[in-house]
Amino acid sequence: MKGKYTTDYGKVVIENSVIAKMAGMKALECAGIVGMAALSKRDGLVKLLTRNSIAKGVKVEVQNNDVFLEFHVIVAFGVSIETVAANLMDAVKYQVERTTGFTVKKISIIVEGVRVID
Description:
The structure is a single chain. Helices cover about 30% and strands about 40% of the residues. The protein has about 120 residues and is of the alpha+beta class. The chain has a single domain (about 5-115), classed as Alpha-Beta Plaits (2-Layer Sandwich). Strand 3 (about 35-40) and strand 4 form a beta hairpin. Helix 1 (about 15-30) packs across helix 2 (about 80-100). About 30% of the residues are buried.
């Protein structure tokens, strides 16, 4: 379901893909996040998504303008996953609520891999 609301001038509809891209871009700004991940259906391996396809690493569900997000991420080796996840949740919640006017009800983070960064 899409997020939508009505103003005096008409209706505003926000596609889930827009929320996914916005949330994915914000997640990439968080320290400790190497990138978004996707599971290959062919070989079952996790792959790092390019910046152009980061929305594939975010699942978005909207119910009555309440947003539920699920992230599939790859984190940097040696970071505190708990701290990185908390920072990601705070940053994404703020960004999505500020730009859409919707309420973020739940954010799930699935760490698909760890990568050493140079």
